[in-house]
TrEMBL record:
It comes from Eurystomus gularis. GO terms for cellular component: extracellular region. GO terms for biological process: selenium compound metabolic process. It is found in: Secreted. Its main location: secreted. The lineage of its organism: Eukaryota, Metazoa, Chordata, Craniata, Vertebrata. This is SEPP1 protein. Residues 1-161 form the Selenoprotein P N-terminal domain. Keywords: Glycoprotein, Secreted, Selenocysteine, Signal.
Length: 161
């Protein structure tokens, strides 16, 4: 994740929190390469303490290889730790709405089935998000598909709570 993306992730975190989407865990995984390791402190300074910046050890198995992804990907999990979206470039650029919308869907909808960690008091927050999404033209509803999109992108039906 480049420094600009990191600062945009911090902005997105604040925006979502102000909209009532709380208790979301954010983790930035720094690349294993020497250049990225030297820039680790700058990456850490680009975000608040609410976003964990993880530095991979050179000797460990690469996290991105393990997750079948690339360094600029966003993997979005639900409360039960199930992968809901895997967004790759260009859909992972935070100047677009894909990451934000995917986080909101993972937060508010049971895309992967019921989760025992669903919080009952998110109804009002999610109701507003669902209303806004329903007001959008149908063509903006579609999520990207391609080699980096998780299979759940094929499920476009909406769950209302």
């Amino acid at each position: 994740l480049c420094l600009l993306q990191a600062s945009r992730l911090e902005d997105l975190r604040v925006k979502l929190e102000n909209e009532g989407l709380v208790n979301i865990s954010y983790v930035v995984v720094n690349n294993q390469g020497a250049y990225s390791r030297r820039k680790f402190h700058l990456l850490k300074e680009s975000v608040s303490d609410y976003i964990t910046v993880y530095q991979q050890d050179e000797q460990q198995a690469d996290v991105w290889t393990t997750l079948n992804g690339n360094k600029d990907d966003f993997l979005i999990y639900d409360r039960c730790g199930r992968l809901v979206y895997h967004l790759g470039l260009p859909y992972s650029f935070l100047s677009f709405q894909y990451v934000e919308e995917s986080i909101k869907i993972a937060y508010c909808e049971n895309k992967c089935g019921n989760c025992s960690y669903t919080v009952p008091d998110i109804g009002g927050v999610c109701e507003n998000i669902t209303k806004k999404a329903d007001e959008k033209p149908a063509e903006t509803e579609a999520k990207p598909s391609g080699q980096h999109s998780h299979h759940h992108n094929l499920h476009r039906h909406r769950h209302h709570h």
